[in-house]
Write a structure and sequence with these properties.
This protein has about 220 residues and is α/β, with parallel strands linked by helices. The protein has one domain: 3-Layer(aba) Sandwich (Rossmann fold), CATH 3.40.50.1820. Helix content is about 25%, strand content about 15%. It has a six-stranded mixed beta sheet with strand order 1-2-4-3-5-6, sandwiched between helices. α1 crosses α6. The longest helix has 14 residues. About 45% of the residues are buried.
Length: about 220
Amino acid sequence: MHPQPSLRTTHVTASPKNLLVYDRWGQFGRPVVLLHGLMFDRTMWWPVAAELAGASCTVIAPDLPSHGQSPPRQDYRVERIADDLAGLVDALGLHRAPVVVGHAASALLATAFADAYATHHVLTLDEPTIAAGTIEDLVTTAGLDAVPEALRPYAAPRTDPALLRAYESWLAQPPTRRNQPAMAGRTPALPSGPAGPLAHLTDPRGFAAELRALL
């Protein structure tokens, strides 16, 4: 008999000034933090989380500020949001360094988190190019045609120029370090890396298997 898959639950963390809404699958194991790119929301990770969740990890998918159900705030700096994510991970009470996954512009956030906090592994996909010169360049829209039709609603970014302006400070972030281990003294075997744009939606099961290998 196979165990029932973990149920998704929705939570709120932090104070009213820096509140984040997030989904959680599981109660034990290593935290896996799934970060959506700008103009998306946490639902883009639901297909992967459903495949990944189990006894070996707890999966967390937050909405970035002003995305999904997380409200606006005054401070959108990547370091500030990384601090809030660290508080979220600490509040889980799992006492294990997380695997942090960043999609598109949130590759910058994943790297900033790993620079400041104990991190088991960082995995990025669809990250911006070094040549990104405007905030619009940080929004990834490529690869939608390869996503199965049933999953395309998870892959379509919204259009909100005013919200993009709020995140302009992210342009000053340094280039990301693709698939670099971020915890000193430990070098896990590196995976081959996500294949193609929106790899977590074109092949959720395969992407979940790749993450499971990092636990």
